[in-house]
Amino acid sequence: MKPTLHNGEEVMVLRTKKIHRFDVVLATDQAGLVYVKRVIGLPGDNIRYHNEKLYVNGRVVAEDFLYKQLDLNKHQRYTADFPADYTSKGVHVPQGTYFLVGDNRPISRDSRTFGVIPKKQIKGRVVCNIAPFDQFRFF
């Protein structure tokens, strides 16, 4: 989840019934592996990336939390376009599921590889980083 979280940091997770776009959540995949990822697709959404922009239901949605933290070379691609068929209308997020991505987009294993996550597999929302203490911050 770099640049938001780094290896070895500890977080506080709260169980919640409501999940919002851009929440950082703790979730498990079908194999039971645990992930900390960011919610970009809500149930019923149609999402896609094209030219480093997130489109939700056909509209560009800014990801200020991500780009303020990055020092990107103008020629460096950070988030690859998806779906692969750019004429497609995007990825549909079925009811009861969420599309999760990591903030370290070039190497993140997330919904782009393992698919959408059912709500029951989202264990809670990450609310703050608690260790190391000098890195404490709320999300």
Describe this protein with a few key phrases:
139 residues, mainly beta, Umud Fragment, subunit A, 7-stranded antiparallel sheet, 4-stranded antiparallel sheet, serine-type endopeptidase activity, Pept_S26A_signal_pept_1, EC 3.4.21.89, signal peptidase activity
The CATH architecture name reads Ribbon
Largest sheet: 7 strands, antiparallel
Distance between the termini: 13 Å
Overall tally of structural domains: 1
Percent of residues in β-strands: 35-45%
Order of helices and strands: EEEEEEHEEHEEE
Poorly predicted runs are none
Topology:
Blueprint: E1 10-14, E2 24-28, E3 34-41, E4 46-50, E5 53-56, E6 59-61, H1 64-67, E7 91-92, E8 97-101, H2 111-114, E9 117-118, E10 122-131, E11 137-138
Protein name: Signal peptidase I
Membrane topology: Single-pass type II membrane protein
Domain Peptidase S26: 1-127
Walkthrough of the structure:
- The protein has helices spanning 64-67, 111-114; strands at residues 10-14, 24-28, 34-41, 46-50, 53-56, 59-61, 91-92, 97-101, 117-118, 122-131, 137-138.
- The chain is mainly beta and 139 residues long.
- It has a single domain (10-138), classed as Umud Fragment, subunit A.
- The strands form 2 sheets. Strands 1, 2, 3, 8, 9, 10 and 11 form a 7-stranded antiparallel β-sheet that branches. Strands 6-5-4-7 form a 4-stranded antiparallel β-sheet, with no helix packed on it.
- The protein starts with 9 loop residues before the first strand and ends with a strand.
- The mean pLDDT is 79.
Summarize the structure.
The chain is mostly beta strands. The protein is built from 2 helices and 11 strands.
